Amino acid sequence: MKKSLILSAAAALILVACNGEKKTADVALSTIQCGMCSKNIENALSDLKGFVSIEIDDEKKVGKVVYEAGVLDMPAIENAIAAAGYDANDTPANKEAYAKLDMCCKVPGKE
Ligand SMILES: [Cu+2]
Fold this sequence. Notes:
Shape: globular
CATH architecture: 2-Layer Sandwich
Bound molecules: copper (II) ion
Strand content: 15-25%
Structural class: alpha+beta
Oligomer: single chain
């Protein structure tokens, strides 16, 4: 139930590119703090097959991710970001990864 809600929300945000293969979606990154967080997330995603690019707005705490549909999907993207220690949409950050982040990358008041 929860998963299908997330999927439909992601589907609503997707803008189909010219050839229909690449998709763009917004991903809420509510716990990012600084430019290093953006770098960490970029690094985590760059390992994924089908990942094209991500443009992260530190202030709005949102990322615009471009990926190859059919190779990669939003749940996999969210999981990779969560594994790096950051919340991604409704997917919570992996606690161990979060604990290893530098102080500047932690949410103030949240250990
Ligand atoms: Cu940071």
